[in-house]
Amino acid sequence: MSNRGGKRENAGRPAGQGKYGESTVTMRIPQSQTATIKSFLEAWQRKRANAAGENAITEIEVDEFFTPAISEQPTLLPLFSTKVAAGFPSPADDHVEKRLDISEFMIDHAASTFFVTIKGDSMIDVGLLPGDKVVVDRSKTPGIGDIVLAVVDREFTIKILDHGANKMPRLMPANSTGTYRPIYIRPDTQFEIFGVVIGSFRRFK
C-alpha cells in the first residue's frame, strides 16, 4: 500500500504566517467586486501598518451611504414663527410662518447630493455625533473652513478642510480631547474631496 498522496502532517504554511498575519478562509464573491475587495484589504493593511504614523486615520469615520428619494408630492409641515422657550407654540394658523418641505430645506441639488452616516467622534465639537446623517453635495466647491467628505488613501473621512504654513491641504478634526490629529496631505497621498457637507440631522426616538 503506497504512502504517497494525502495531506502530510505539518505540511503547508503555518497559521498566521501569511500576508494578513492570521488564518484565512475561502469565500466566493461576485467577479465584478474583486477590485473593491482588494482595495479594501489594501487600505486595511496600510491602516494597521501605519497605526502609529502621523497620517493614520484611527477609524473609518463614515458608515452607510444613501441617495435622497425626493417625492413628487413634498411633505409640507408647519414652521412656527414664535420662539419656543417653555411649552409648545399655539397651533393656531396665525402663528404659522410658512410651510416647510424638509427635502427642499436640506437639499440644494438632488442629483449631486447623498447622505452619509457618521461613525466615530472626531467631529463632535461641530455637532456631528455618531449615528448622525450628514448631507453631502458634490456640486459645491470646497473652501478653507468647509466640512468635507474626503478620501485619503482610499478611506473616507469627514474633516474640516484647512491648509498649513506651506499651503499644503490638511484635514482638521473637531474634537477638543486631543484624541485625533490633523491629517496632512503630502504629495504622495491619494487624496480627493468627495463632497462638501452642507447639513446634518438626527433622530432622538
Automatic annotation (TrEMBL):
The keyword Transport does not apply. InterPro entries: LexA-like (IPR039418), LexA/Signal_pep-like_sf (IPR036286), LexA_repressor (IPR050077), Peptidase_S24_LexA (IPR006197), Peptidase_S24_S26A/B/C (IPR015927). Keywords: Autocatalytic cleavage, DNA damage, DNA repair, Hydrolase, SOS response. Transmembrane segments: none annotated. SUPFAM superfamilies: LexA/Signal peptidase. Signal peptide: none annotated. Residues 1-23 are annotated as: Disordered. Residues 78-198 form the Peptidase S24/S26A/S26B/S26C domain. It comes from the Bacteria. GO terms for biological process: DNA repair; regulation of DNA-templated transcription; SOS response. Residues 1-11 have a biased composition (Basic and acidic residues). One of its GO terms (molecular function) is DNA binding. Belongs to the peptidase S24 family. This is DNA polymerase V. It comes from Nitrosomonas oligotropha. The lineage of its organism: Bacteria, Pseudomonadati, Pseudomonadota, Betaproteobacteria, Nitrosomonadales.
